Amino acid sequence: MFTLIEHNFNLLSSASNCNEVDAKGAKHAIHMLQPEGHQPFLALCSFDHHGGWTIIQHRLDSRENFHRSWDEYKHGFGDMFGSFYLGNDNIHALTAQGDYELMIEVTDWMDKKAHAHYAVFDITSEEDGYQMTSANYSGDAGDALAGNKVKFSTHDHDNDFELEENCAMHHEGGWWYVDCKHGNLNAGYRHQGKLKDEHDTGMQWGRWLPDQSLKTTLMKIKPIN
Fold it and tell me: Can you give the residue ranges of the Fibrinogen C-terminal domain (predicted)?
C-alpha cells in the first residue's frame, strides 16, 4: 500500500507512461497512468532532457521496510516522495507496452554517485514469476543485475538458484536472485553502510562496491524513443 500525504498529484492524466506526460516545467510529479489493458495506478514521474521516466524503486533511508511478501511486491508499497517500490504488476504492465530502458542510480555513504543503464529491460507477468530481462549495459557502476529470465523472489516465494538458502530471507528484501551475491537494491538498509556480519551485504550493487551497503538507490524506466 502506498502512502500519499500532502503531495500534489494529477488524477486526470490518461498517459500510458510518464514519457507521455506533459511535465509543465516540473522535475518530478505524481501522475495517474493507465497502460493498455491494465488498471490505472499512481506513479512518480521524473523529467529530464531525455523525456519522462517512471520511477519504479527509490530508497532514501530506513523508514520503509522492504522485507515484504510476494503480494506486497506485486502491488507496491511505500511513500512515492520517500522510499517505495512501484509493484511488479505495474512494472510488467508498463514494459509489456513496448521496448523499455532502465536507469539505475546509486549513492554511497561518502555521497559518491554511480549509474548503470540497460538499453533493454522487461519483466513478465506474475504467471511467469515476473522474470526479468536486462541487456546492453553501460555506465560506471558495473553490471550487477542477474541477467535474463531470472524470476523474482521474496521470503515467502523463493525462486532463486540457491539450493540451501533463501536469498530474500537472508538479505531482507525481494529481488531477482541467481545466488545471494552481486546486486540487490531491495535488501536491508544498513546505516553508514555497516554490515551485520561477513555474510551480510545490505543494499548492494556488488560490481561497484562489493563490501559496502549503499545510502540511496533509484530505478527508473522509459520507453525507447
Answer: 9-225
What are 222's three cell numbers?
522509459
Other residues' Cβ atoms within 10 Å of the Cβ of residue 198? 6
Q: Which of 208, 199, 209 shows the shortest CA–CA distance to 179?
A: 199
Structural domains of the chain in order of their starting residue, each with its CATH number? 8-223 (3.90.215.10)
Q: Are 149 and 174 in contact (CB under 8 A)?
A: no
Residue range 212-219: mean pLDDT, rounded? 94
Q: CA angle at residue 122 from 86 to 99, to 5 degrees?
A: 110
User: Which amino acid, one-letter code, is at 58?
Assistant: H
Print burial letters for 88-103: b (CB count within 10 Å at least 16), e (below 16).
bbbbbbbbbeeebbbb
